[in-house]
Design a protein that fits this description.
CATH architecture of one domain in chain C: Orthogonal Bundle
CATH class of one domain in chain C: Mainly Alpha
Strand content of chain B: 5-15%
Distance between the termini of chain B: 13 Å
Radius of gyration of chain C: 23 Å
Order of helices and strands of chain C: HHEHEE
CATH superfamily of one domain in chain B: Amidase signature (AS) domain
Radius of gyration of chain B: 21 Å
CATH topology of one domain in chain B: Amidase signature (AS) enzymes
Oligomer: heterotrimer
Structural class of chain C: alpha+beta
Number of helices of chain B: 15
Chains: A alpha+beta (479), B alpha/beta (482), C alpha+beta (95)
Shape of chain C: flat
Strand order of the largest sheet of chain B: 1-3-2-4-6-5-10-11-9-7-8
CATH class of one domain in chain B: Alpha Beta
Helix content of chain B: 25-40%
Largest interface: B-C, 70 and 52 residues
Structural class of chain B: alpha/beta
Number of strands of chain C: 3
């Protein structure tokens, strides 16, 4: 039987506020344990939550950037359960009336545009951390993270493969960074995915029983966990079994998912509106302000790059993978408007390759857009060859000669020979010295031509403008 | 001295006839002498109180004093006070020394008042007799066989027995007004949102409100002026222009329309209470007021509604007591879940556990709509009843409690009978409207009776005026069991 | 609405309160009486009434996004049952 995999993702994005969602404690990552847990985060008796405007503003930003409805009022609710990293014994979250309702994310899957619908996005507080190092049979609790604002972004089950899930997650990851609401640092847990996975026979409508996989902290784990889980479910069904609805944990070391809790022992969370917090109203005026401060969104830029610069869908999606990359591209192209494709190729090729190799973000790129544009200008005006440009690029990357393109070209003698008469003279010399190959060519051996070009390039140490060499050589041989 | 009003004390302090240190010492002395019998205080800390008195004396000497500077106030042990054991009447917090001050405590500190001690209370404010306190029962100073009421029973006892000139209380279903009535003192629960709940250990967040307990309405006004005020740390705290609660005290009552809800005069009220209320109303008519019958058709449902909403909120509010970060932790357990269970089972008393169970149930899957949502809808109907009534009258009066103080142990085995002690008081918590109780005489066994004065939102000054005018022509508020 | 002993045990479990069979039966008796009282609510038709969560119809006030709290873990942990290396210790958490 052919099976269809149905996936919905729940993404927890930590919002990049200075202070926590309900307290004035810092959210900075990496502080010594419990030094950023104030009386509110510790749930001391008598303390009360007050909502952080910055967290709400980020949620509005997100809602507007996915075309969602901003609910006003929206309501905060308590999700009641006991866990040592949850100091109040309840998490303040949103249940009915989340701040963001609906919305859409466009993804590029297999070269095609696909729309993933969002169910909702709601504000909630993060929990602390249980450290499992052994303190004489006990665990340690660090509440620094408790109360960090989260936006939980829930998709509809519109995703059909692990690869699509990864693209969706990456698109969402790029978006939250793009609009500046989340730093997206997955190692630090700023962007975490849970996947709801089910399978159904191809062509059928009814959704299969789903399992929720928790703890997917990288795109690779997301992909592998979904693959494993779909395989597991298909195997069970093909053996005539049934899927049990449960929460599963992905164990990266074994590349498998295992049961965390079944539906039967799932908690009864007893959601109810938090009486300590009042309805959150978001004025049209505030929404307008946030809207007008929103940057041009990735989708809009992608469309613009396609129409304005005639770039391919693939190129534009790579260039808009982050706002920083897109901004880098735009700064470069400003200096070189007619060479969009050349700029795109270099940013996606040399620049991104070198950044990857050194593990740098584009914001830390040693070559500025203007320096890159100068280099590319020298290619397009024929001063240097594309090959020589790579040598110049390397020198610039290494900081030679203050990254001055022209100085490096001069110092390395990379300037192309583009003078027709000089090239003619060279061609003639080579033709005289290689009578046999000239004869071969004239007898129809096309290969001899390339060999002659090679000789000419060798004689100029590669500096002759190859296009000119081709034209002149052809003229001489046929003339 | 210990019978003096706050105003008299304030004048004596200002005129240097007495120092705050002397005054504080005197009350500490009284507490030392009488508390073993009444058990009104859980914690007394002479060192801190006297240090505060010293500071107050300096303020008085340098002309920085306000009306309450130097005056000892007993604080209900539900208010977190930095450096003070703050137990909320529970074993769960029997070792909890608060690292921070409640908003109310801060305001009293800024006013230069002295914290004379932390008063006994029903555990987590759940009770109407002060018998659920982990720290033992409190006696009613009028009759030590009687309960003082609750949950602010220690506070009511302390004021009635003159162990403190005034006290703070909190009121979730009647916890200021009911003990005030049973101990023959005055107490007011202000409009929800006027007094900061920050640092006031939560019982039912949407109903809890702090307020003062004192001998007279005039004293209450002075205390309210300190207690009321916006606190940015409490999302439900209201931002309003400051109002002097004493501004209307002297206004005559001519033309005042007193609404008497027929539902409150129907049945359940004992004869002694009924006749005391009638006498008080005669006094009010003499003062120029007229009485009219009003109807609050849904008010009789206040108790069932209250016993859904308050336990629901409480069950969640009390989840933080898990033995991890502060407070009691069971000495022996097998694993994490067992540590939670043992800690909570040993740390909470029977009534608290009962309410946690009720609350957990009404919020649980499948019951939420039938109980919680239903109760919230009735809450609105009850509030609408009052709003309607206030179109026809200025104030509503009735009994604070159906009977005088009952005997210790009389109702402790019967939760429903206990819950019904709040039959007249809990509506004001559901609506959020202000309500107060003043002493109007004595009933069976010579135990005090309270008049319940209920007003519309923000009518505190008017209510205090109404109470004060009565107290100008009567002396029930001056009676003392000591 | 009738409550059963298993309901009592289930809610006690949710609330992390220990209750043995005898206690459960006793609690059931008390709770049944209380729920009879609560049940009187059902007599009123509330189908057109909006639930009331708060006494005042005011909206949530927002805090500026500023760090206002300093590290006081020493003070806060001085009242903790068990602390080591800045951490609150609990019996082993098993995930």
């Amino acid at each position: 039987m052919q099976w269809e995999i149905v996936i919905g993702l729940e993404v927890h994005a930590q919002l990049s506020t200075q202070s926590k969602i309900f307290s004035g404690a810092s959210t900075a990552y990496g502080a010594p344990p419990n030094t950023q847990a104030c009386v509110i985060d510790l749930a001391l008796p008598g303390v009360l939550p007050v909502l952080n405007k910055g967290a709400v503003e980020r949620a509005i930003k997100f809602g507007l950037s996915v075309g969602a409805k901003i609910n006003s009022p929206s309501i905060f609710a308590r999700k009641n359960y006991f866990y040592p990293d949850l100091p109040k014994g309840y998490q303040i979250s949103q249940f009915e009336l989340p701040v963001v309702q609906g919305g859409n994310i466009q993804i590029q899957a297999d070269g095609e545009e696909k729309n993933i619908r969002l169910t909702r996005a709601h504000l909630e507080e993060d929990a602390g951390k249980s450290l499992h190092e052994d303190f004489h049979g006990m665990s340690g609790i660090d509440l620094n993270r408790a109360g960090t604002p989260l936006l939980e972004i829930v998709s509809e089950p519109d995703i059909r493969s692990s690869a699509e899930a990864v693209v969706y997650a990456k698109t969402l990851h790029a978006l939250v960074r793009w609009i500046g609401i989340c730093d997206g640092n997955m190692q630090e847990g700023s962007f975490r995915c849970d996947a709801n996975v089910s399978v159904r026979p191809h062509g059928t409508e009814k959704l299969g029983t789903r399992c929720e996989i928790k703890n997917l902290n990288s795109f690779r784990f997301l992909e592998k966990a979904i693959d494993y889980e779909a395989r597991r479910q298909i195997e069970i069904l093909e053996d005539g079994g049934t899927i049990r609805q449960e929460t599963r944990l992905y164990d990266a070391s074994k590349d498998e998912t295992r049961t965390m809790r079944t539906k039967e022992d799932a908690n009864d969370y007893r959601y109810f509106p938090d009486p300590d917090l009042l309805p959150l109203e978001i004025s049209a005026n505030w929404i307008d302000q946030v809207q007008s401060a929103l940057p041009e969104l990735p989708q809009a830029r992608r469309d613009r790059y396609m129409s304005e610069f005639a770039l391919s869908a693939y190129d534009t999606s790579v260039l808009t993978s982050s706002r920083e990359t897109a901004d880098y591209f735009e700064s470069t192209i400003k200096q070189l408007p007619a060479q969009a494709k050349l700029c795109a190729n270099w940013i996606m090729g040399e620049i991104s390759g070198q950044l990857n190799k050194e593990g740098l973000e584009i914001t830390a790129c040693p070559i500025t857009p203007s320096q890159l544009a100068t280099l590319l200008e020298r290619i397009s005006d024929g001063t240097i060859s594309g090959k020589a440009a790579k040598t110049v690029f390397e020198s610039m990357w290494n900081g030679e000669l203050e990254k001055n393109v022209d100085a490096i070209i001069a110092a390395k003698g990379l300037k192309q020979i583009s003078d027709d008469s000089a090239i003619e003279k060279l061609v003639e010399q080579v033709l005289t010295a290689n009578e046999q190959q000239v004869a071969d060519y004239r007898n129809g051996k096309e290969k001899a031509f390339n060999s002659l070009v090679g000789q000419i390039m060798k004689a100029t140490q590669g500096k002759a403008n190859p296009a000119q060499v081709n034209t002149i050589l052809k003229k001489k041989l046929e003339g | 001295m210990f019978n003096a009003s706050l105003k008299q004390l304030s004048i004596q302090l200002a005129e240097k006839k007495i120092s705050s240190t002397e005054l504080t010492t005197e009350f500490l002395q009284r507490i030392k002498q009488f508390n073993p019998e009444y058990n009104a205080f859980i914690t007394v800390n002479e060192e801190i109180s006297l240090a505060q008195a010293k500071v107050a004396d300096k303020m008085l000497a340098t002309g920085q004093a306000g009306p309450l500077t130097g005056i000892p106030i007993a604080q209900k042990d539900i208010f977190c006070a930095r450096g003070w054991l703050t137990t909320c009447g529970s074993k769960m917090l029997s070792n909890f020394v608060s690292p921070y001050d409640a908003g109310v405590i801060e305001r009293f500190n800024q006013a230069g008042a002295i914290n004379i001690g932390k008063t006994n209370m029903d555990e987590f404010a759940m009770g109407s007799s002060n018998e659920t306190s982990y720290f033992g029962i409190v006696k009613n100073p009028w009759d030590i066989a009687a309960v003082p009421g609750g949950s602010s029973g220690g506070a009511a006892c302390a004021v009635a027995a003159r162990l403190a000139p005034a006290a703070t209380g909190t009121d979730t279903g009647g916890s200021i007004r009911q003990p005030a009535a049973l101990c023959g003192i005055s107490g007011i629960k202000p409009t929800y949102g006027l007094v900061s709940r920050y640092g006031m250990i939560a019982f039912a967040s949407s109903l809890d409100q702090g307020g003062p307990m004192a001998k007279s309405a005039e004293d209450l006004a002075l205390l309210l002026n300190v207690m009321i005020g916006f606190d940015p740390r409490d999302s439900t705290s209201l931002q309003r222009d400051a109002e002097d609660c004493a501004q209307d005290l002297q206004k005559p009552l001519a033309g005042l329309r007193i609404g008497l809800p027929k539902e409150y005069f129907a049945e359940g009220m004992s004869q002694d209470v009924a006749s005391a209320i009638e006498k008080a109303l005669v006094e009010y008519r003499r003062l120029g007021a007229q009485t009219i019958e009003v109807s609050l058709p849904n008010a009789p449902l206040s108790i069932p509604v209250y016993y859904v909403l308050a336990p629901a909120e409480a069950s969640s509010n009390l989840s933080r007591f898990d033995g991890v970060r502060y407070g009691y932790r069971a000495p022996a357990y097998s694993d994490l879940a067992d540590m939670y269970r043992k800690t909570r089972t040993q740390g909470f008393g029977a009534e608290v556990k009962r309410r946690i169970l009720i609350g957990t149930y009404v919020l649980s899957h499948g019951y939420y709509d039938a109980y919680y949502i239903k109760a919230q809808k009735l809450r609105r109907l009850i509030a609408q009843d009052f709003t309607e009534a206030y179109k026809r009258c200025d104030i509503i009066m009735g009994p604070t409690t159906p009977t005088v103080a009952f005997n210790l142990g009389e109702k402790s085995g019967d939760p429903i009978q206990m819950y019904l002690s709040d039959i007249y008081t809990s509506a004001a918590n559901l609506t959020g409207m202000p309500a107060m109780s003043i002493p109007i005489g004595f009933g069976d066994k010579n135990r005090p009776i309270g008049l319940h004065i209920m007003g519309n939102y923000f009518k505190e000054a008017q209510m205090l005026n109404i109470a004060h005018q009565y107290q100008l022509v009567t002396d029930w508020h001056l009676k003392s069991p000591v | 609405m009738t409550l059963s002993v298993s309901d009592v045990k289930r809610i006690a479990d949710l609330a992390y309160i220990e209750i043995n069979d005898n206690e459960a039966k006793e609690t059931l008796n008390q709770l049944s009486g209380i729920f009879d009282l609560i049940g009187t609510m059902q007599a009123v038709d509330t189908s057109t009434v909006e639930p009331m969560s708060h006494a005042q119809s005011v909206v949530q006030r927002l805090r500026e996004d500023e760090v206002t709290e300093a590290d006081q873990h020493g003070l806060y942990q001085s009242i903790a049952p068990q602390v080591e290396a800045n951490l609150y210790l609990v019996p082993q958490v098993i995930e």
